[in-house]
Design a protein that fits this description.
Transcriptional regulator, ArsR family; HTH_ArsR_DNA-bd_dom; Arc Repressor Mutant, subunit A; WH-like_DNA-bd_sf; 3 strands; 14% strand; DNA-binding transcription factor activity
Amino acid sequence: MTINQFFDSQDEIRIKIFKALADPIRLQIIRILNDKKEELSCGEMGQLLNMSKSAASYHFKTLREAGLTSTRKAGQNKFVQLNKESFQSFLPGFLESLTTER
């Protein structure tokens, strides 16, 4: 019996999601987007996280490739927002568990 016998068609997506959420910065990005309840420009997010554009871009790409966010381009600006359908499908209740109030 091989490990591939245990995988279903959605497991690759699950692996990408958990790898993306395993980083504290990306988890913070998800938390901020969830708290704001709207899309934010990549520049705004970079300022909130106090990081360079290239570092922020790397994290946005990882989240987008995992299906957790989507990016919209408008002119020179890019805007990022949560893909709530992915969270509902793969991690129901996860967004509700994220709060900045402790």
